[in-house]
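User: I'm writing a tutorial on reading structure tokens. Could you give me a worked example: one chain, its sequence, then its tokens, then a sentence or two explaining what the tokens reveal?
Assistant: Sure. Here is the example chain.
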Amino acid sequence: MATTETSHTVWRRNTRPDPRENQPTINGFSKLDKYTGLETEDLRQWRQHVEQLKAELLQEVQGHLSYLLDRAITQSIESLSLCTGTTVNEKTSNPPVPRAHKPDDGKVFTARQSLLDELFEIPHIRTIYHMFIAALLLFIFSTMAVNFIDQGRLVPEFDLFIYAFGKLSVVAWTWFIMFTYTLLGPYGALCVWGELYHSSRYKIMVSVTATLILAAIHVLVLGFFPLYAVLHHQLPPVSRFIITMEQIRFLMKSYSFIRESVPSVIKNAPQQGESPRIPTLSSYLYFLFAPTLIYRESYPRNSHIRWNVVISNLLKVLGSTFYLNFILVRLCIPVFQNEGNKSFTTRTLVLSMFHAILPGILMMLLGFYGFLHCWLNAFAELLRFADRMFYKDWWNSTSFANYFRTWNVVVHDWLFYYGYRDVLWLTGRKSRSAAMLWVFGLSAVAHEYAMTMCFGFFYPVMFCLFAVFGMVFNFALNDKRQSHVWNIIMWTCLMLGQGMQVCLYCQEWYAQIHCARTGTSFWELVTPRSWTCIYE
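And here are its predicted structure tokens:
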């Protein structure tokens, strides 16, 4: 049809225009000619043809958009049906009225890619990724050049890497004991409690007793035992960090399993002679390895494992680790190792903090890319876990409130559903500030505990950044800030915060090495040694 109309238009250009066409048309071209006197009959005919093509194109685009939206809605319904145990085409006598999803309904998992995987398909974004790889190569070449000039060899040293990952055998058997208990302990407690709850008249007493017993065992196995392993064997920093993070992860996962399963057991009372409805052990085992902290009996799954994606992401994790090693060797150790011959003054602190901004922000980006993207995507691909939204576009945030929600979606979901929402329910939805304070306090304690266990000394930098500055920025730089200027302010604050962490922790690390503790009092343990330590 378009070809016919085009040829017809060309034929009209070679003929004398019909005077009747000077009458006003529905597109108003002749009226426009009356006011401007610039358009010819040929231009008017061409514009009519373009307008018709425009209408056809818009109609076709609208059809494609309708198809894409229908497919997205269908996939969302199918994903929801997997979580609820129903099918999309299931016929019922009284079909439920569909409604919008609410936060009180809980998290709904759906098949989707990670945001960086989509962005890396854009050549401009891919170029930024290549720039970071080029910077890694420059770090390697500079390290080799310095080693060749100073020591006469080209092979870079990995002494820091080997030291940080030392005693992995202790890490392995400690992790295995924690994992075995997390798998069998909460699941066994849920099975026993479910049988007794529906068969006993003293339901509250049974529930309280089971909760206290499980909590006591949790404190022993997932509380004191990792502490004993870390302190007794004097593990190096990364080995400490692995055990500590797995300890926190097992605690959060076991809590989610109990929190999601208990209401289902209470609601679905078994018939006479039947056993209560308990989730399967296989679903709980899958959850312990799945890259999520919210338990469901089933998740959206992919059809097959792409082994090239698994290997590629694991190699990127290894590359990020070596990248971090070169940053510490080239940008941190040469600077802070010689800071001890200077007294702790405001000038020294400010200069050191600004020097640490570059390595600090690089460490932050490497941690985000290496763990939240590569590591979680590798495990998601291994388990065919289809929901890959582990983070959102936090880099575009114009407020710290949005940054906290989008930086780490996996942890944020747990804090929102089991911290913020549950506290809000306990207070009768009357104290949102109390719920938010509880979430920030819990997050600050967890972060500070992880850093204290990792470095082996108490220096509440992370706690102050989360509990004080983080809370203030959350209220001050809230979602009402939409200008791009606030995104610049957010990035400036992030860089200053990362520089402060790297600066203070590095200074304290070397102060702990060179200035031995003189006593065992409480204040001796909690007072930063870098404030008073001076060494050559």
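What the tokens reveal: The CA atoms of residues 132 and 526 lie 38 Å apart. The chain is about 70% helix and 0% strand.
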